[in-house]
Amino acid sequence: MALLPRLRQLMRRPSSASRVGARRPTTAARRGDTLHEDALRSMLSDDPNNERAFVALAEIVRRRAADSTVADEDPLAAPPDESERQHAADLAVWALGEELAGNPRAWYPLIEVARLSVSDDHEGTLRRLTTAAERDPSGKALVEALALLRGAGMPVDAIGLGVGHWRPREHDPEVARQLVLASIEAGRPLEAKQHIAALDLYPDQAAVAELRGELGRELAHAEQNIPGT
């Protein structure tokens, strides 16, 4: 079952959905994971875009959710297979990402939820990536969003998102790389040239000189492989 339908199914079951990604009540001694989780949550409260803290916390909730499919199983039912454990782990990370995305400064959790939804929910993925790009003035979120869409085989969507949100004077120049590569992948070499030219607006021209040359070579190579050019 795809992740989004599975999420909706679990959300209709309060008894199970309420435990997704949550600590399991226990009277046992606190485990190392619990102490680590508290520390990571504190770090993410201060900086919801702390990638290392998010990845570490996601690993904890993934492991707990996957293990819970075994702990909660009906002894008369067949044991959960690996796909069920993976679904449970993904749903736990989804819940974590949605929780952290409630912070108006958070963009990285939105990227991670979009990563989980990209194959099931096109509109929702674009909405999350758009919000992430709008929340981050540095352009790093936009770089991550465009790379995600390109990796999912959606270069046209990447172009649309990039053109609508890229500020060449202010943003990380790596946005240009993602836009040029998306344009090449979409068969739009003229647009790729425009994105390379937009690097002229970046204040530190020395810093983008190598990138401009690299992208120019990428485009020239791509044009050599376009029939009739």
Can you tell me about this structure?
This protein has 229 residues and is mainly α. The chain folds into two domains: 1-135, no CATH class; 137-229, Serine Threonine Protein Phosphatase 5, Tetratricopeptide repeat (Alpha Horseshoe), CATH 1.25.40. It contains twelve helices and no strands. It has helices spanning 3-11, 14-17, 32-46, 51-71, 82-100, 108-117, 122-135, 140-151, 155-165, 174-185, 189-198, 205-224. Helix 3 runs antiparallel to helix 4 and helix 6 (108-117) packs antiparallel against helix 7 (122-135). Mean pLDDT is 85; it is low at 10-30.
What radius of gyration results from the CA coordinates?
A: 21 Å
Sheet-strand content, in percent, reads under 5%
Q: Which structural class best describes the helix and strand composition?
A: mainly alpha
Low-pLDDT sequence parts? 10-30
Order of helices and strands: HHHHHHHHHHHH
Largest sheet descriptor = none
Mean pLDDT, rounded to whole units?
A: 85
Tell me roughly what share of residues is in helical segments. 55-70%
Beta-strand segment tally = 0
What is the terminal separation in angstroms? 45 Å
Tally the structural domains. 2
Morphology = globular
How many separate helices? 12
